[in-house]
Write a structure and sequence with these properties.
The protein has 498 residues and is α/β, with parallel strands linked by helices. The chain is 37% helix and 17% strand. The strands form three sheets. It has an eight-stranded parallel barrel, surrounded by seven helices. A three-stranded antiparallel beta sheet has the order 1-2-3, with no helix packed on it. It has a two-stranded parallel sheet with strand order 12-13. The longest helix has 19 residues. The radius of gyration is 28 Å and the shape is elongated.
């Protein structure tokens, strides 16, 4: 990307300590060579950035100016704008069997294998769901890993997640996985308060585990936990620089997962780090030299920003975003995988072979086989995500479905747009419901002035006049329609198949 042109000599000032411990400032005429390089993306000369060394502070920096615990966290700005830098290739990775299992009853081995099969189909022939990570601590989880490996799929690749301990790493070696995630807590909240270490001690510990991982040829993926409350240039960048040195030494890629563990990340241009997702991605790429293909973002939804932050990570240079099905994960959950499938399509203008009908199959499997009820208004998968109640909306859909449906949901999700029947549906809503439920061909569809629709409307009005407050069920509507059709000697050409 960069072509070296010439060098520039710079005078630097060094702060030191004088006699008897007094503060002193000594100016040394030390000349260092900072490269001036040509950026082939912008075709502009740019000065090589500073190198960042570990700031091994004695007291933790927990950014209480941004995160006062007794107030709502603050979003501050310095208007330093970094450029968009979307990679040529972007993809999705999955944490359904890891973070997704931390907030619910564990999946059975059979359920894990079935969901893994679904993920393989969803990712399509290009394997856009690139990896899926697993716990290894229980026999059940290890059995699931073995069974998924037996499938022989190239994608999603089976990977693991471990704590930064040599004991945990033994599990990875025993199974023979090619890559593992390693928990690397990087904020002072975790380093000082949880680990009871200094930054240098934490860094040395993490590097020793990563080195051991690489000694056996396993690819490490460093999960930078709580990065949005960390000292980016005092710890994260120096640590990642050391990781890049290890990568060069062993010729094994080291992935960096940007973990917005508490959901503090923001995507606003000009926001300050450590909350700025664009700023973090830029720092990793430009100052730590981490290539795009080795950066992935892992978001949480505590402030409703998981999807936006994940998309932002793509836009600013991360190739991967890490997600869980239906956003199931710690506290408010992770970035929903199905959401990023559609974000991908919107950014790229194509699904690139991903089979989105699998999303509906997964939602049905979760409800029927796992017993997990997806909230009804969840985008793409909730029971009511493309159902309208308002009569004026139903009238519009009766005239042209495109008016009130986000896209052809029947084509992409096997979910035709529907209306529910209530006191606000009107004759248009009832007509639309009949045509959709019974899948009537165009030439046999009823309109809002038909005798059948008018009779049903009169019945619906009576129901609510007599005090009903709930939406009419499909079963109630079918029973009434059959009764009215018999009275009016009407036969609907085609009925729905259960």
């Amino acid at each position: 990307m960069h072509e070296k042109i010439f060098t520039l000599k710079v005078k630097i000032c060094i702060h030191g300590t004088g006699v008897n411990g007094t503060s002193a400032m000594a100016e040394r005429r030390i000349y260092v060579m900072r490269e001036v390089v040509m950026n082939k993306k912008t075709n502009l000369l740019q000065l090589e950035e500073h190198f960042y060394q570990l700031a091994d502070v004695k007291e933790p920096n927990v950014f209480h100016n941004l995160f006062p615990y007794d107030e709502i966290p603050k979003i501050a700005f310095n208007d330093r704008i970094v450029p968009h830098n979307m990679p040529e290739n972007i993809w999705i990775t999955d944490t359904t069997f890891r973070d997704g299992q931390q907030s619910r009853a564990p999946y059975t081995t059979e359920q894990i294998v079935t969901i893994y099969d679904y993920l393989h189909r969803l990712g399509g022939p290009k394997g856009l769901i690139r990896q899926s990570e697993f716990f290894l601590y229980s026999k059940k989880d290890r059995d699931a890993v073995y069974k998924c490996l037996e499938r022989g799929y190239e994608f999603p690749e089976v990977t693991s997640w471990i704590r930064a301990s040599k004991k945990d790493f033994q599990l990875v070696k025993d199974i023979g996985l090619k890559e593992t995630g390693i928990l690397v807590s990087c904020s002072d909240y975790h380093i000082f308060y949880k680990l009871k270490m200094t930054r240098r001690e934490a860094m040395e510990h993490y590097l020793s585990v990563v080195r051991e991982c690489m000694e056996t040829g396993v690819r490490p993926r460093c999960h930078l936990e709580d990065i949005t409350r960390s000292d980016i240039y005092g710890f994260v960048i120096p640590f990642c620089l050391e990781l890049m040195k290890l990568m060069e030494e062993y010729q094994i890629p080291v992935k960096i997962r940007v973990c917005d563990t508490m959901g503090y990340g923001v995507n606003f241009p000009g926001a300050v780090i450590p909350r700025s997702i664009p700023g973090i991605i830029y720092g990793l790429m430009v100052h730590a030299g981490v290539p795009s293909e080795l950066i992935e973002f892992h978001g949480h939804n505590d402030f409703y920003k998981a999807v936006n932050n994940s998309t932002t990570a793509w836009l600013y240079g991360a190739c991967g975003v890490n997600c869980s099905l239906f956003g199931i994960g710690e506290r408010t959950g992770n970035t929903p995988l199905e959401a990023m499938v559609f974000e991908y399509a919107q950014l790229r203008g194509t699904l690139d072979g991903m089979d989105t009908t699998v999303i509906t199959e997964l939602a049905e499997y979760y409800e029927k086989e796992i017993g997990y009820k997806v909230p009804s208004r969840t985008p793409f998968v909730g029971k009511n995500f493309n159902v309208t109640r308002a009569g004026i909306h139903a009238d519009g859909m009766l005239k042209n479905e495109e008016i009130y449906n986000i896209f052809d949901t029947e084509k992409f999700l096997n979910r035709p747009a529907l209306v529910s029947v209530s006191n606000t549906s009107g004759v248009a809503g009832i007509a639309y419901w009949i045509n959709a439920y019974y899948k009537l061909p165009k030439e046999a569809q009823v309109d809002k002035n038909s005798d059948l629709v008018l009779a049903l409307k009169a019945w619906v009005d009576r129901e609510y006049e007599e005090g009903r407050v709930t939406v009419l069920t499909d079963e109630e509507l079918v029973a009434k329609i059959e009764s009215v059709c018999e009275e009016l000697h009407i036969t609907l050409q085609q009925k729905a198949v259960d």
